[in-house]
Amino acid sequence: MDSCGYGKTKVAWLLGAVLLFFACAPVTRTDLSEKELLGKRIFFDESLSEPAGQSCGTCHEPTKGFADKYGRITSEGAVKGLFSNRNSMTCAYVAYVPALHYNKEDETYVGGLFWDGRVNSLEEQAGQPFVNPLEMGNKDRKMVVEKFRNATYYPDFVRIYGEIVSCDSLYGKILDALATYQRSIEVNPYTSKYDAYLEGRYELTGQEKEGLALFKEKGLCAECHVLDNDERAGRVLFTDHTYDNLGIPSNPDNPFFQVPAPYNTVGRDTMDLGLGAFLHDSTEFGKFRVPTLRNIALTAPYGHNGYFKTLEEIVHFYNVRDVEEYPAPEYAETVNRDELGNLGLTPEEEAAIVAFMHTLTDGYQID
């Protein structure tokens, strides 16, 4: 008997291994391994929430760059009317985010998953939404496992992992399968125009080329969304995995403000302190992890609280935050005053940077 309360169960082999190859996502590759395909089945299984109707893929939809399926400010959970407090980050390319650590040379924290770096592996990340009352809503791991044992693809799980009696161990293997899918080529394909450009298969337009130059230099975007190959990925990820406070205002339209106690006890006065809240360190209050810009054109709205509806809006904010009227930052004391806020970009230059960022969308095919 383990902590989930399960004893040994008899597996009924009802379906053949062929079930593993029927994927639920709108885009299916034919070169995924059996374990990756199993992870994909779990990722898009809406029966694993409480009540049923929500999957990992609801908040991480492939056609939306693996961000929220409906492009919402924050995602609604399985229980109607309950919303998370933050915008859903893409889960594409996060397989390369390192564990949270402090870089003494640069005097900054690096890595960790979620906006606030609170877990250090894809497996840890995958385990949280299942039992979060504002997300998939299960009471505990036991509830998830009970549903999983009834899934049509469960025999495929047993064929790959063996029959597992312990609920804790089985839950761990569920997370292993999910993480395996998130590390797959389907979630990390590197098929953008920019990748084709680096490989000599695409020529940037004049506007895109200007945008790249501005991205590197005058716009200072590459200070954090770096253009060097990531040491873990071996490819450009457009992030250094560090943390920053951009001075984004509180979002008055955030539906989390309407979520009742005990999930939100202060209503509209909620202040998200990001990394600092996790570390209990006021010098890191208001800082959030720099996300990848891959597929950024698909993942609106933008910012940890979804304040900006379009790429044009957030690029303009980077450019003129300190010279135009914006509401006060959600947390003012740690705002980055050096790399954004008064960049002097013209409207045409802003548009060129946006055009360049559109080249980072996966799925480009040469005519």
Task: Describe the overall structure.
By secondary structure, this protein is mainly alpha-helical. It folds into 2 domains: 17-109 and 120-182, Cytochrome c-like domain (Cytochrome Bc1 Complex, Chain D, domain 2, Orthogonal Bundle); 193-358, Cytochrome Bc1 Complex, Chain D, domain 2, CATH 1.10.760.10. Helices cover 28% and strands 3% of the residues. The chain is built from 11 helices and 4 strands, in the order ααββααααααβαβαα. The chain has helices at 34-43, 56-59, 122-130, 141-149, 154-161, 167-182, 193-198, 206-216, 274-279, 311-320, 347-358, and strands spanning 101-103, 108-110, 243-244, 288-289. The strands form 2 sheets. The chain has a two-stranded antiparallel sheet. The chain has a two-stranded antiparallel sheet with strand order 3-4. The longest helix is centred in the middle third of the chain and has 16 residues, at 167-182. The chain is globular, with a radius of gyration of 21 Å.
